[in-house]
Amino acid sequence: MWVNPEEVLLASALWMTERANPYFILQKRKGHGDGGGGLAGLLVGTLDVVLDSSARVAPYRILYQTPDSLVYWTIAHGSSRKEITENWEWLEQNLLQTLSIFENENDITTFVKGKIQGIIAEYNKSHDIREDDDTDKFKEAIAKFRKLFIMPEEEKLVNYYSCSYWKGKVPRQGWLYLSINHLCFYSYLLGKEAKLVIRWADITQLEKNATLLLPDMVCVSTRCSEHVFSVFLNINETFKLMEQLANIAMRQLLDNKGFEQDRSLPKLKKKSPKKVSALKRDLDARAKSERYRALFRLPKDEKLDGHTDCTLWTPFNKMHILGQMFVSTNYICFTSKEETVCSLIIPLREVTIVEKADSCNVLPSPLSISTKNKMTFLFANLKDRDFLVQRISDFLQQTTSKIYFEREITGSLSSSDDEQGSALSCSPQRSALSSDGERDRQFNLNESRVPTATQALMTMYRRRSPEEFNPKLAKEFLKEQAWKNHFTEYGQGVCMYRTEKTKELVLQGIPENMRGELWLLFSGAINEMATHPGYYEDLVEKSMGKYNLATEEIERDLHRSLPEHPAFQNEMGIAALRRVLTAYAFRNPNIGYCQAMNIVTSVLLLYAKEEEAFWLLVALCERMLPDYYNTRVVGALVDQGVFEELAHVYVPQLYDCMQALSVISTISLSWFLTLFLSVMPFESAVVVVDCFFYEGIKVIFQLALSVLDANIHQLLSCKDDGEAMTILGRYLDSVTNKDSTLPPIPHLHSLLTDNRDPHPEVDIFKLVRISYEKFGSIRADVIEQMRFKQRLRVIQAIEDTTKRNVVRTIVTETPFSIDELEELYTLFKAEHLTSCYWGSTSNPMSRHDPSLPYLEQYRIDLEQFKVLFALLFPWACGTHTDDLALRVFRLLDHNADALINFREFISGLSECALSRPKMHTPDYRMYLRLWNQETKAKLENMKDLPKLNQSQFIELCKTLYNMFSEDPNEQELYHATATVTSLLLEMGEVGKLFCSPDDQDIKLEDSSPKDTAMSSAMLISDDETKDDTSMSSYSVLSTGSHELDDKLQCEDIAEDTVLIRNGGPYAGAGHHGKAGLPHSASIDKDWAITFLQFLASVLTEQALVQYFEKPVEISARITNAKNVRKVGHQHMSLSDYEISLSD
C-alpha cells in the first residue's frame, strides 16, 4: 500500500534489494520468506519485535531516491510480494518516463511526494475512508495486531506496551496489545514465537503486585490459568487501561451494553509525536468524566470538557483558596487542593454573567461569574483565561438555547393549566393537618393529570407532643437557626459553598423540615429534576394502569414498607409509594423493581415531595448505589466483598471469626441495601441517610465497621452465626436519636427479638462521630479500586452459577456428561459474545436478557449457529454444510423468533451426534424432518410424517452423498446409497399405480401457495444447469391438512435458487440466483414415498445402518472446536481460551 513519504537514512540496513532502477528500489526484510535468513534472520526478527518495527507486518517496501542524493524516502510497503509488485509495476508504467523529463532533483522529489500523497487521498475518497485521529505509527501497530492475532477490523486496538511475559521461569520480551475485547501478547526471540490471547470477559482477577525480584508486575488470572507481565515502562498507565477494559467487559456481561466510541472528541494536531489512539483518548476522557461526576454528584451523561488550576475568593473567610476549576457542558465546579476546605457547583442554567475582571498583582487574570440568586464567584490565577471564557460562553449559549426550547415546548402544554393550577396548588408547608379535606389539597390535580403529592408525607402526618414547646423542639429550633445562619454566610441552594462547616452541621443532624431540600441538594438529584420539568408527571401518566412483573412485585410489597409509620397506614401514602416505584420501574426496566427499594423510597417520601422522592430514588439507584437494585443485586454483593476487605484491614482480630461464621455476608446485604433503615430504629436510621447523601457510600462502610468494632469481644465468643446475628441485632435496636422530635415509632425488628434485657442505649450521633474518628481515613478512590477487584469476582461467580444451573437443569434430558455440557455451554456463550463484539444479524440485546430463566439468557442466531454446527455436528462436511445448518436451525427454533437457546441447541446436537442402539427407534424422524420443514407441527407418529415428492427425494440423496464424501468407508456407503435409491425409485413408481386421483390431489398439490396472504417461500430453480455435486432444489409436500396449512411450500438450497418469504424470521436466508423461472418439467409430480419406506430400505444396507448407529465422540469434537477457535475460524473470532505458546 502507498504511504506518506518518510525519510530513511540507512537504506540497506537489515534489508535486501530485489529490484532497482534509477529512481526506485524494491527491498525485502532480511529473514523474511524461505529459509528465514539463518542466524541473521533470527536476529533481525527478534529486533523487529523488541523495537516494534513495522517490518514485522510489512516485510516489503519501495524506496525513492534521486541518483545524486543520499536520502531515501519510503513511499510504499506491503505484507506480501504480490501487493508490493503491483505498486512497483505501477511506478514503472506511470512515473519512470515522466521523471526523466525533470532536470532539477528537488523538482523530482517534490513531484514524486505530491503524486504519492495524491494517490493516497484519491484512494481514501473513492473508498469513503474517513480521516481518523490515529498517528501513522499507531496505524502500523493496528495492522500488526490484526495480522498476528487474526483479528477482524471490528476489533479496535486501544494501545500497546512493551513488557515481559513470564512463561515458567523464563521472561519473554515482547508487546502487550490491549484491544476493546482482548488482551494479547506477542514475542519473537531467536526463532521462538509466543502468542497469548485472553478475552477480557474471562478474566477473574487483575492485580498489580510487587516482589523483591519484580518490583512492578501485573497478574492476570482466568478460570484455568494465571499470567504474569512485568518490566513496563509505565505500569500505572497500563494497569489503569487494563482495569477500564475489564470493567467494560464486566458491564457487557452484566447488562449486555457494548462499547461505543465517542466521536465528538477534539482531534489531535497533525504531527503529534504521541502514539496514542483515538480510542485511548476516548477512554481517558471517560475515566476523567466518571471521576468528575462522582466528585460533584452530577448527572450520568455529563462530560468533562477540561480543568485548570486557579484560586477562588471565599467571602466567608476572606481568603483566596488554591484549587482546580472543572468545566463541563452544563456545570462549572471547583474543589480545593485540601479536600475538605471548599467545593462549589455552579450550574450554567443559574449563571447570568461571565466576565473578565481587571488584573492586578494581587488578583492576576480574574474571572467573575454571577448567578440568578445574586451570588458572585471570583476566580483568579487562570492560565488561559481568554480561551476559558470562550468555552464557558459557548456552553452558556447552548444552555440558554436549551432552556428556551424547553419553555417553548412546555409553555403551550402548561398555559391552559395555569389558571386551574393556581387554584389547586398546595399551600405552604404546615406542621399539621386538621382534616382529610385539607390533605386532599396537597395533591396537584391539573386537568387530566394523575394526582401527585406536592408535600412531604411527614408534614401531613407529623404528630406533636402535648407540650407545644419542649427541650427537643428547642434543640430542633436551634438546628434550624444554625442552618439558616449557614445559608446566610455560605449561600443557599445548589451554588452554596460546601465547607467543613457544612459537614459538621450534617453530622449534628439535619432538621426534620429541611431534610428533603438538603437531601436533594447533596445527592445532586436537584440538577436532574431542574433539567427534566414535567418528566415525572408524564411518566406517572404513562405507567398508570400498566401491568408487568415489576408492578406485581410492587403491589405485593407496598404494605410491607414502613407499616409502623402512620403515613403508610392509609391509601394516600400507599398510592404515592406505588406511583414513585412504578414510575421508576418504567423509567429503568433493566432494574424495574427490587426488594428494599420500597423501604428506601417510603423514607424518601416522608421528607420529600413525590417528584423529589422520585429523583432521589434515581440518584440512589443509578449513581450513588450503582447496580444495587438490579435482579442480582450485583452492586450490593460487590460492596459486601469490599466490606470484607475493609474488615480484614481495620478489624483483623475479628475477621477470621466472622469469616468462619459467615456473618459478614449475611449482615452486609441488609445493612447496605436499605442504608440501615431496616435494622435501626427509624429516627436513628435517617441520621445515617443524612450522612450518606452528603458523603456517599464511605459512610455506610465506616458505620458498619464501627458496629463490628463496638461488639468485638461479644462476637469473638460466639459459637454460631445465629448468636452473632442476635448480638448485632440487639445492638442496632438500641441505637437511639435523643434529639428526634418525632414520637417513638415501634421498630419491627425490635419486636421480633428475644425477651432478654435490652442493650444499653447507643446515641446515633456518638456512633457516627466514632465512625469518623476511627475509620474516617477510608477514601472514595480506595473504595472504587476495591470495587473493581470485587466486581470481577462477583460477576464471574454469577456466570459460573448460571452455567452450573443450566447444566443441572438439562443434564437429565441429554446423554452428555456434566463436563461435556459445561464445555458446550462455554462454546455456546463464547459464540454469543463474539457476535456482540464483531456484529451480527440480530441485536445483542434481544439475545441476552439476564432477567430470563438461566436456560434462555443467552441465545444465538443463524449465523452463530452455522459456526457451531460446522465445529460440533457430525453432518457438517462438504459444500452443503450451511444449508443443512439452516434446516437444523429452523427445526430447533420452536417459537420461530430466529433465535435458539442452549436447551434447543443441546437437543439438536444430542439427536445428531449420539445415535441409539437400534435404528428403528423414532429418533430418526428428526433426520427426515430436515427435508420436510417440520418447524411448527411436531408429529409424534412416523406414519403421520408427510411423504417426500421426487424433488425432495433427489435432494435427500444428494445430501447423503455429500455427507459420506469424507468417510473412510466412502465407496461402500456410495454403493449402499445407490442401491437404496434405486429401490425407492421403484417403490415410488409402483406407488403411483395405487394412488387414487383424490389422493394425488392431496399428496402432490402444486407448490405455489393458494392463499396469497400466507407467509410462504417460493423456489425458482433450473435443475438442468446444475452439475452432479450441486444441490438441486425441492418443493415441500403440502398435505392439505389444517396442521400444515402454514408451512413453507418450498425452499431453496442451491446456488442458482432464491428463497422468497414474506415477513418470516428466515427471509433472505437463501442464496442469490435466478428468478422468474418455472419449476423443472422433469420432476414427476405424482411420484412419492413414505418415511417408513425410506427407513425400511435403509435398514437393508448394513453399511448405512452402521453409519447412522455409530456414536460420535462429542468430547473429541469439543476439543477440536476449542483448538480451531484458538487460531481463529472463518469468521475470525477467537475463543475465550488462551492460545498456547510455542516452545
UniProtKB/TrEMBL annotation:
Annotated keywords: GTPase activation, Repeat
InterPro entries from the UniProt entry: EF-hand-dom_pair (IPR011992), EF_hand_dom (IPR002048), GRAM (IPR004182), PH-like_dom_sf (IPR011993), Rab-GAP-TBC_dom (IPR000195), Rab-GAP_TBC_sf (IPR035969), TCB1D9/TCB1D9B_PH-GRAM1 (IPR036014), TCB1D9/TCB1D9B_PH-GRAM2 (IPR036017)
Ranges for domain Rab-GAP TBC: 509-696
Annotated segments matching region Disordered: 413-446
Claim: Ion transport is one of the keywords in the record: no
Residue ranges, compositional bias (Polar residues): 422-434
Pfam families from the UniProt entry: GRAM, RabGAP-TBC
Record's keyword annotation contains Coiled coil: no
SMART domains: GRAM, TBC
Domain of life: Eukaryota
Alphabetical list of SUPFAM superfamilies matching this protein: EF-hand, Ypt/Rab-GAP domain of gyp1p
Domain EF-hand: 880-915
One GO molecular-function entry: calcium ion binding
GO biological process, any: system process
Function text: May act as a GTPase-activating protein for Rab family protein(s).
UniProt name for this protein: TBC1 domain family member 9
Organism: Cyprinus carpio carpio
Lineage of the species this protein comes from: Eukaryota, Metazoa, Chordata, Craniata, Vertebrata
